[in-house]
Amino acid sequence: MSDKKAKSELKDTLFYNQKNGYDCIDVTERLELERYCEAYKAFLNDSRTEREAVRNAIAQAEEQGFVPFTPGMELRPGMKLYRSNRGKALLLAVVGDKPLSDGCTVAAAHVDAPRLDLKPLPLYEDGEMAYLKTHYYGGIKKYQWVTIPLELHGVVTLKSGENVDVVIGRDKDDPQLVITDLLIHLAADQMQKKASEVIPGENLNLLIGSVPYDGEDKDRVKLAVMSLLNDRYGITEEDFLSAEIEVVPGFDVRDVGLDRSLIGGYGHDDRVCAYAELKALFDMGTPELTAVCILADKEEIGSTGSTGMQSSAFECFMEDLCAAQGVELRRCLERSICISADVCNGYDPIYPEVHEKRNNAKLNYGVGICKYTGARGKSGTNDADAETVGLLRGIFADAGVVWQMAELGKVDQGGGGTVAVYMGRRNITTIDAGVPVLSMHAPFEVVAKFDCYMTYKAVKAVYQRKA
Ligand code: MN
Ligand code: MN
Fold this sequence. Notes:
The protein has 467 residues and is of the alpha/beta class. It has helices at residues 3-14, 27-46, 50-63, 195-198, 220-233, 268-283, 313-324, 329-334, 386-399, 420-424, 449-463, and strands at residues 67-68, 80-85, 89-94, 105-110, 115-126, 129-137, 150-157, 163-168, 205-209, 243-249, 254-256, 262-265, 291-296, 337-341, 344-345, 367-370, 374-375, 403-405, 415-416, 429-434, 436-438, 445-448. Helix 2 (27-46) packs across helix 11, helix 6 crosses helix 11 and helix 9 crosses helix 11 (449-463). The structure holds manganese (II) ion (2 copies). The site of one manganese (II) ion (MN) has 3 residues, from loops.
C-alpha cells in the first residue's frame, strides 16, 4: 500500500467526516422525503397560530384513532390518547408495552411563533384611516413586519362565553392587511437610527380601512370598519377586550430554490418539529416505552402561563397516565428521556462572522442535535450529558438517521433557549434536537426538506428505542 493511500485510510478511520445528506440517501428515501414534506407544507400553511396548529393536530390524531384521555381510563398497550390544554397546547401518548415505571419517551415541540398580537383596545382612526394597534409577541426584528401582507387569526370570547373564530386574509378573495413604512424619500432621519429603533413598537399599527361612514361627525372610518366587523362576526369594539387576535404573515408556504430543496414559510419555528413529532407518533406502531408528544404554547415568551411548558399541565397528564398503572410519577420521570424538539440556527454563508463554522448546523446535513443552548458561558441551558448524546448516536446509527451537532452561533454572539431546561428540571434526561433554520423568527423562514424529513426519522427512532 502506498504511503498516500495508507494516510488517507487512516484519515477515514480517525477523522469525523460529515457528508451532505443527499450523498447519504437513495431514490426511495428521496421520494419518501418529498411526500413527507408535501404533507408538512399543508399542515404549516393551515396552522398560523398555536390554536390552529392544535386544532389541525387533533383532527389528524383522531383520524389515526386517538381518543381524548380522561382520568381513570384503563390503559392497554397501543392505546392512542390525547388531551388538549385549553385548545392552545396538546399532549398525546401512545401507551407502550412496558409499564410506565420503566419511563417513557417524550418529545416536546412548541406551536406558538413570533407575531404581533392586537392590543385589548386596538381600533382607532387617524388621518381618516382606520388602524389596529399591536403588541409584538416573542423575539422579532420589527422592521421585518412592515410592508408585507398580513392576516388576522384568532378568537373573540363573548360575554356569553361563546368563542367567535376570526380569520381575515387567508382566503384568496379575502383582503389582506399591512403596516406601512416611511418612503425612502423622507427617511433621512429614520435611516440613521439603529435597526432596533427604525420601527418603534408603537408604530406597528395595522392599516384596516379608509372609507368613511355616511355623515359628518368624527371617527367615521373607524365606524365603517367596526360595522364591517360587526356584519362579519357580530362583534362590537368592547368584544376586543376579551379577544386573542394574532397578526401573522400572509405568505403561502412555498418551495424555495430552483431545485425545490427548501421550504419557505411562516412559523417553521417550531411547527416543523411539532409536525415531525406528530407524524412519528402516527407512524411508529406500538412502542416498548410509552411515547408522549407535546405541542406546547408560549415558548417564545419563556414557556410561561398555563399552556406553556412550565405549567404543571404536563404533570397532570403524566400523573393520570401513571395512576392508571399504579406507578409513582417521579419514578416514571426519572427514567424518562425527552427530546426537546426545537429548531436550531442553520449556517448562513452570508453572515459567516456570527457562526462558528465547525460547530454550527448546516442545511441538508440532517437533524441538529444541540447539546446545549444558552448564552455566554452556557448560562440558562439544559446541557445534555455525554451519555445522552451517546445514546442518540447509537439509536441514529441503527435507524439510518442523518444527523449533526448544532451550536447556536459564536460563543459571545448571543444565545437562546428552548423548553429543554423545564424538562430537565422535572428530572427527565433531556436533549435538544431539531431542524436548522435560516432567517429564524422572520416572517418567511427557510428550512431544508432533507432536514425536516430527518427530524421526523430521528424522533421516530427515539420513540422506538428499546427499554
Ligand atoms: Mn423554537
Ligand atoms: Mn423561536
